[in-house]
Design brief:
- The chain is an all-alpha fold.
- The chain is built from 16 helices and 3 strands.
- It has helices spanning 8-34, 56-63, 68-85, 92-114, 123-137, 142-158, 166-177, 191-206, 210-213, 216-233, 235-244, 247-253, 263-283, 287-296, 301-318, 327-362, and strands spanning 119-121, 179-182, 185-187.
- It has a 3-stranded mixed β-sheet with strand order 1-3-2.
- The longest helix has 36 residues, at 327-362.
- It starts with 7 loop residues before the first helix and ends with a helix.
Length: 363
């Protein structure tokens, strides 16, 4: 494999995009913890707050956060692929350590958040399994990997039956369907669908295809194509809305299925990713900004996820912050949590660099 380089512009666009997804993550979770408004769901009655003028927060909390999960998994795959393309060697031990990191902090967050009484299979558990699969998957070529990705999307889209066996039902929900696996276990991120998003990012990075897409015109066309694909999946909902003329039916068009990630959610996610990258390209036009963006906004996304959740759990558990309807207060919480998380993540990165440097010098 020919060793390639990543340009300053490409690095700044990717760094900027990763930070956007991380900030949106804070926005989503702050709303979840401290907003008294509930996110709209497939239940039409829960969409009611969206049509009142004072509930902009409820609207934003739902629809601005669509890129988070697709962006998080896509970027993880993309960066792994790019680093592989650049010649970085990853041992199997590296992925086992990453898996253990995710599992350890997933359990710790679960114990801290639910006291061990309830298990929520969220992002970290999903990544723990993905990292165990990577050493095997990276042996395949890009066509096979994209075929596995497509198969994962298709299975998530069309498999809907629940096995009668409790054990089989648990396995199917962990890997495909998500939802309530038992009275004490909820699967938020089933493996198969998110593996598909991860592999798309990995192939684009590992084969260098990302270089072709980091272009304004291509990203606009890609984003609009995914918008069209999303609307095609909503054909029936659009027809119902046009027939009834009811605001509830029009709002239903905007609701995508995340658990498991159906095509409408995946299309909307990739559309959002395209436009986030587009923002990165726009900001990176000035060469003087490129290194600044790459330097200032460089963070470890997994550390960001873990630290910001710990901060939110501490705030809820020990500071007894009440839920609020105030948009400005929620925004203030977001800014505060983001600054604290950024500071702690950067501090941790500095500590890791010093530790690794000392470890190498001792060898």
């Amino acid at each position: 494999m020919t060793k390639q380089k990543i340009s300053d512009k490409e690095r700044s666009v990717i760094t900027f995009s990763r930070m956007v997804f991380c900030l949106l993550m804070v926005w989503s979770h702050v709303n979840y913890f401290f907003s008294s408004y509930r996110f709209p769901s497939k239940n039409i009655d829960s969409l009611a707050p969206l049509v009142t003028s004072d509930n902009l927060q409820s609207f934003l909390a739902r629809f601005i956060t669509y890129p988070i999960a697709p962006g998080f998994f896509f970027m993880a795959g993309l960066l792994l692929g790019i680093n592989t393309l650049l010649g970085k060697k990853y041992s199997n031990i590296f992925f086992f350590k990453k898996s253990f990191y995710c599992l350890f902090f997933g359990v710790l967050l679960n114990l801290f958040g639910f006291g061990g009484k309830f298990l929520e299979f969220e992002v970290l558990y999903c990544f723990a399994i993905l990292f165990l699969l990577v050493p095997f998957l990276r042996k395949f070529n890009s066509i096979i990997l994209l075929s596995i990705s497509l198969l994962g999307f298709l299975i998530s889209q069309f498999l809907s039956s629940n096995p009668t066996s409790e054990v089989l039902n648990f396995i199917v929900r962990v890997f495909v369907l998500g939802g309530e696996a038992s009275s004490h276990v909820r699967i938020v991120f089933p493996i198969v669908g998110w593996l598909g998003v991860f592999l798309v990012g990995y192939v684009l990075g590992q084969k260098g295809y990302y270089k072709k897409f980091l272009d304004m015109k291509r990203l606009v066309m890609t984003g609009l194509t995914f918008v069209l694909c999303f609307l095609l999946t909503k054909t029936i909902d659009i027809q119902n809305a046009m027939t009834s003329g009811n605001i509830w039916d029009y709002l239903q068009v905007l609701v995508a299925n995340k658990i498991p990630p159906k095509f409408d959610f995946v299309f909307l996610g990739f559309c959002s990713i395209s436009f986030v990258f587009l923002g990165g390209i726009f900001l990176s036009k000035k060469e003087s900004w490129q290194n600044k963006i790459s330097s200032i906004l460089h963070i470890d996304a997994l550390d960001w996820y873990v630290i910001h959740l710990f901060l939110l759990l501490i705030a809820r558990k020990y500071f007894h912050i009440s839920k609020t309807e105030s948009f400005s207060l929620i925004l203030g919480y977001c800014v505060l949590i983001s600054f604290l998380t950024y500071f702690l993540v950067r501090l941790n990165m500095k500590f890791k660099r010093k530790f690794l440097k000392r470890e190498r010098s001792e060898k």
